[in-house]
Design brief:
It contains 16 helices and 27 strands. By secondary structure, the chain is of the alpha+beta class.
Length: 704
Amino acid sequence: MSVGPEPNLEQVEQIRRQINRLAEEIARLSEMELPPPDYYNEFLQRVVAALAAPAGAVWLRTAQGNLQLQFQINMRQVGIDNSDVGRQMHDELLRQAAMKAQPGIVWPQSSMGEPSGNSVPPGNPTDYVILLAPILIENQVAGLVEIWQEANRGTDAQRGFLQFLVRMAALASGYTVKHQLRQITGQQQVWTQLESFAKQIHGSLNPTEVAYLIANEGRRLAEADRVTVGVRDGPRCAVLAVSGADVVEKRSNLVRLMRTLFDSVLAWGEKLVYSGIKDDTLPPNVLKALDEYLAESNSKLLVVLPLRDERETNTKKPPRSVLLLECFDPPAGPEQMVARLEVVGKHATAALYNASEYRRIPMRFLWFPLAKLQDGLGGKARAILTLIGVAVVLLIGVLVLVPYPLKMEASGQLLPRDRSYLYSSNSGTVREIKGTLKSGSQVVKDQQLLRLFDMDLDDKITDMKLKIDTADNTIKLSSQLKEGDKSTLAHEINEAKIRRDAYSRQLEDLQQRTNAILQRPGEFWVRAPMSGIILTGDFRDTLLNRPIKPNEALLQIGKVDMKNPKLSEWEIELKIPQKHIGQVLAAYGHAAVNDELDVDLLLTNMPTSTFKAKLHRSKIAKEARAKQNREQKDDPGGESEPMVMAWARISGNDIPEESRIPLAALQTSNIEVHTRIRCGNHAMGYSLFYGVWEFLYEKVVWFF
């Protein structure tokens, strides 16, 4: 067994003193006010030198919770980027270490645990030993210190290196805590300057004015090169103000790219911080918008801060407004600047939200004078009472002074002007209705329409025919006799001829009077009294096989030509309630032309068009009659509403062409028409509520 050379104690002591010196330097650095990039640069150089390590890196958590490389030494030489799988294993290793918050040693070409899903397992893809130590703040991982060490070092040596690394990470944790305290101190200094800023931005409700105050004063408070304010108007964000610029040029390429960046960040909903190093974990649309904007603006420090008011917490829409801070030559530590921007944003959020809500108030020009009037009247209750009183006075004035046409409603039908009812000459039973006969059928005068049968007529015709046949037989027998007195035979023949002729004339008169069918005794025809169309509807079921009387109207015929309709052949038959006829007749004393009143028409088959008619005074009946309807026939004891019949014309040059009933509407008769008779202008109150006035006068005033 051979024994190696004894260790050089002097050399070991020299290495120990060097390591202690580097540790003391790291401790002094941790007490200094250095920006994080500078601190971790010096920190990592001394740690790598103390451990004689080939490479090292410091990873810090971003605002989104992701690990971002802060500083590295010879990181590419260890071979992490040799393959995508190796890089993924290393990323997963860092993520697991950040979750566990414990130091560890990872041996070369090793993996830890099983992969989850389709991902790769955490591990060390390099030929070096990885030493990991967390930077802790209140037991929360703020970052990681990673060292790559030669694999030929012993296990005890590696554990010693890890203990040293943990001690140095504790110093880095102390630096981070002090750095955060310095940030808080910077925020307190900003708070002392925010009082006047808050008064200014909350002193106006004009969104543009508020935005310019925030941009210019916020730039001074945050000590930035440029601050921009954007406000979301609907789905897109608009740039309202840019610090140092009097007018925002909306068409400029910079402003358009700025709007795109605002839209992307607002949709994302998180704060975006760019300090020279891009975070590849950002959403793709945010990363693309950031790259395009940086290519145009060349900002070295950029912060996009969405401003969501507390009143927007229950909505899923993006925040209402956003701030953009830019620096072209940022200081070494931009954290204090970002902290000041966040304080400025807290005050700007409410101011911009209030200004936007104020702008959305509709009809501000009307509500603000009313508010001033309310204050002038001494309060809300007095203002309401005053407005009610003014409204009542104005309403009464309008009802009394403003003229308005008085319109009387009446029911009506569209009918031909010349109409005639069809009656039977005798009583009888309807046996036949011509097959082509129906409502709207064209008929000509003396056309056979209905065939009836009457037993009495049958007896009369049969009796007359029998008497005529008896007289004929008497004449024949008397003419054939050769014996007897010639004068007596001649006398009998003459008397028989007289009886025959008399009965023949009676039969002919009966046939002409009743339109009897002599070949079929008892049957007779009812003929059309005039040419026209059948107005009666659904008459087959009501007439066929039913006994009728001579005074019973069977059909109604109107004298019109359906092939060539004319408005002059038609009229409106009105049924004016008796309670309205006084107003109608009184209106003729004020009529301007030919004692005629205008009538508004609304046909049931054309309910979206209004037409005109003229009602002459002479076309109003002189007496009222009870309204005959089916309900009253079924209930004889019920009260009937008295009606006055009137007939209005629908043709004439004094009716405008556009107000005339179209000829197409004349293809159907008995169309129900809703009418309003214009009875001149009266006070609006009387025209609208004349029924109420007449009721009160009849029941109250007349009673006393």
